[in-house]
Amino acid sequence: MALTRSAFSEWNDNSNKMQVINNWLQEVKKPEIHVTPLSILHYNIRHFFSNQCDLLDMVTQYNPTIISLNELGTHVPDKIIKQLLFSYNIFTSKGTNPHGGVVLAIDKKINSIQIKIDQLNIIAVQLIVGDLNAKHPNWGCTSINHKGKILAEWLDVSEMYEI
Fold first, then answer.
1. Helix axes 17-27, 2-12, angle to 10 degrees
2. CA of 90: how far to CAs of 58, 59, 68, 77, 127, in Å?
């Protein structure tokens, strides 16, 4: 009904075409785009059982989409990790030394599966996360070390970007 009145007033009004177009543009609603931000939490946990409370605090505070953990320490059963991070799909790799072991947890709202890939160049997007101990001003450090210099050069040559 309101649309009919609006059309009638446009036909009978002394408005020029530009005024009519401007009125239409003001009334047009842009569609709402719902974007889910992607956030990544990487934590060098340095022994899972001693620091799982800190992990839960960070997960609660930041609500990350992806969680990357390294240096789990002793063998941690997948069941325990899945109970702790129940709203995430859990992918693990056992360590080869007492400090090893990694976990990648991806929010269940994101479809994810574990795949074995021997040829890395078939991946469309590569995310590198980890405890790299590389310091460089490119990613906010006030100092630079050898690892940071090498990583910055490699990122530049590989046309990759830090986030």
1. 160
2. 17, 14, 10, 12, 17
pLDDT score of 96: 78
Task: Locate the domains of the chain by residue range.
Answer: 35-111, 132-162
Q: Please report which confidence band the pLDDT of residue 64 belongs to, taking 50, 70 and 90 as the band edges.
A: very high
6 vs 81, residue with greater confidence: 81
Of 63 and 123, the one with more pLDDT: 63
The count of other CB atoms within 10 Å of the CB of residue 59 is 18
d(CA 133, CA 62) in angstroms, rounded, equals 23
Phi, psi of 52 (to 5 degrees): -70, -30
Model confidence at 8: pLDDT above 60: no
Q: Which long-range contacts (CB under 8 A, 24 or more apart) does 150-153 make?
A: none
Could you tell me which of 130, 108, 139, 123 has the C-alpha nearest to residue 36? 108
Contact partners, residue 30, CB within 8 Å, separation at least 6: none
CA atoms of 71 and 131, how far apart (whole Å): 9
Q: Are 40 and 129 in contact (CB under 8 A)?
A: yes
